[in-house]
Amino acid sequence: MAVIQDIIDGGDATRTYEYEEYTRTFIVSELTGSGYAMLQEALNTTGIPQYGDEHPSVDDAYCVETRARTIGPNIAEVSAIYRKSLYNQNYEASLSADSLEKESYSAYSVSTQDSTLYPNTIQYKYPDNYPNPDFAGKESQPQNVRDIIYEPKPQLQIVRFEWTTLYADVLAGYARGVPLSEVNVYHLFAERQWNFVGSLNQSNWTLMPNHPAGTWLCTNISVQMHKEYGLNAQKVFRVVYNFQMDKSGLWQRYIAYTDPNTGEIPSDVSTTPYEGNKVSAKYIRPAIYQNFNYLELS
Question: What's the whole-model pTM score?
Fold first, then answer.
């Protein structure tokens, strides 16, 4: 009956950007088979790690491969390869900003240089020698002018390789930590996109803890198959998360009554009915909040 004669622990370790690997070596003696049958017997000996077994001292490292070779009469050396995946970790993050064109109905005071917004009302005083005597030396009627201003829109992109489900996928009925090779990835990622794309951050997002709820909009989650590895064909996906920041209330859009006399939206417009179902403003894109911490990006 085959027995394990010796165990060599900690003899070999490898680290790449994708994973860490650790090798444990077992010397198996008293084998009775011959040729490949002896190696098969060595691999099946009681105490030899099997695929999926956890490393006895390295957290989250699991056996992904065993190899056997003959080293003497009725003796074989079995190497057990344990792998700790470094996926489901941030691989690349970038922060950029562009400017969004926005039609402005108001402007800063030129004379006082303060930060108060005033209507874009301008007037012109015609010179005394203006050819038309009806206008010469007189002030024009006030004009409300629309213009284009540019608002900065910071954008955050995070690229990550994933091979197990996230806490975010619990919303779609999946358990956390399940290998993606064991689930319907089309359904899973479609549900993740449905739950987060178009949503705003709740407060206490760990990536942006100082930003209040509603500051960041998840604009896109894209997924691409990266590779398969291991005996069980573990699937790894490249997932890109995109967010955009706005502090002006752009993400919660509404239409509102405009005073024809001023060209401005009155300060007291409200979405609350004041007579029957009449309202002076309506949300056309209400805010939908989601806990971005579920995406485990930090």
Answer: 0.54
